[in-house]
Amino acid sequence: MFEGTVFGKLDQKLQHAIADAGYKTPTPIQAEAMPYLFEGRDFIGCAQTGTGKTAAFMLPILNHLVKVRRPRHIGHPRALVLSPTRELAAQTAENVKKFSKYVQLPFACVFGGVSQFGQVKDIKKGAETVVACPGRLIDLMTQGILYLDQVECFVLDEADRMLDMGFLPDIRRIISKLPKARQSLFFSATMPPAVRNLAGELVHDPAQVTIAPETPTVEKINQKVMMVEKAQKDALLIHLLKNHPEWNKVIVFTKMRHGADRVNKKLMRAGMTCAAIHSDKTQNQRTRALVGFKRGDVRVLVATDIASRGIDVPEVSCVVNMELPLETESYVHRIGRTARAGESGAAISFVTGEERGQLKAVERFIKKSIPVDRDHPFHSDFADRKAGKSSEGLPTAPWVHPANRNKTNRKRQGHKSFLGRRQPDFGQKDL
Ligand code: AMP
């Protein structure tokens, strides 16, 4: 069915399952990583969510479990995937379920914040693959429910995020319980020194693949900023949602949890179907919100950064940033939700004059200037000027001396004060 590609090397039943899922050709990470994984090599993959990395590691693992059958030992899985967040773990488990539709490979997904009852039940059914978050995994190991002594394939997913979240001691503890003879796969979106050191502890003679970093993904996204006063951001959001009924799946990012709750309430009052997802919500609330969003019952998902990675919802029409994130890298992760595996989407960021520093930092990071959309009733000339954006995309005013045309407003303003008189406002919307 998939002759001539890496998918063609998979067991027929797995090929059927991915064909059902609509996969036609492997993504670059799949094409490059899977041949090494079939050979049983240790592996370091520098790739972010959205590249198809889950299938890149999960398919060869399931293929191995299908081809090399062993008697099942309850509580002793043969494959372990460690994920930093519950959402990512649940998504990976969904992939396992989708891929193993025609093969008998029980699995369990274990994470905290919910009762362990169902998870233990899945383990007792003889789960061969366990997808886990570190905390609950250690919990179940301590209780004598799960043992890692028969793990043949181990995956550490989103290692950089694991370290950000302070999981290093837990990870070390988990690694110490794994058998020495195993295949280890290490995935991370970024490779700062601390992450590289951890990789060094885990893998032996690894094959390495780096999939083009974030910018190419971002390039497909139609990005814009809207200059607005802080007090008008909620009104602008409601205005946009009302004027774009075609946006049927929108993720709105806020910096703080209470901000997410506030925006969610306002949208609800404006009659929108929406839900908030952040770390103060219980696991059940988070799952319900995500499922509702995926199904299309919930149109707007209001989320904090904790949820920005790992959410895999195909066809998100638009991402709105109520504020720009403090960490510039989060910008890329946030807006990446709208261009998964080849689709393209829109990303709008609301920016006040005070946020100009963040805007500049983001633009430096993505190496391009984000155009301003002034075509809305809440446009703030003040913020526009403060951010030095007001001259971009507008006809150059005739009173600007040709030598100064490429300078920013602020530089021009220096010139202005030297002249000692006010000039007409060239930042006006209707110019
Ligand atoms: P991931 O990076 O693993 O989160 O995958 C991102 C999305 O791409 C998921 O919805 C996958 O189901 C989808 N995907 C992964 N590989 C392929 C492929 N070869 N063809 C089409 N879709 C894919």
**Quaternary arrangement of the chains shown?**
single chain
Q: Strand pairing plus helix content: what structural class? A: alpha/beta
Amino- and carboxy-terminal Cα gap:
58 Å
CATH class designation of the largest domain: Alpha Beta
- The portion of residues assigned to helices is 25-40%
N-to-C SSE string, H for helix and E for strand: HHEHEHEHEHEHHEHEHEHEHEHEEHEHHH
Strand order of the largest sheet: 3-4-2-5-6-1-7
Unreliable residue stretches: 393-431
**Helix count from the secondary structure assignment:** 17
Mean pLDDT across the residues is: 85
Based on DSSP secondary structure assignment, what is the total number of beta strands? 13
Find the CATH topology of the largest domain: Rossmann fold
Q: Radius of gyration over alpha carbons?
A: 25 Å
Shape: elongated
- CATH architecture descriptor of the largest domain: 3-Layer(aba) Sandwich
Give the CATH H-level superfamily of the largest domain. P-loop containing nucleotide triphosphate hydrolases
Count of distinct structural domains: 2
Sheet-strand content, in percent, reads: 5-15%
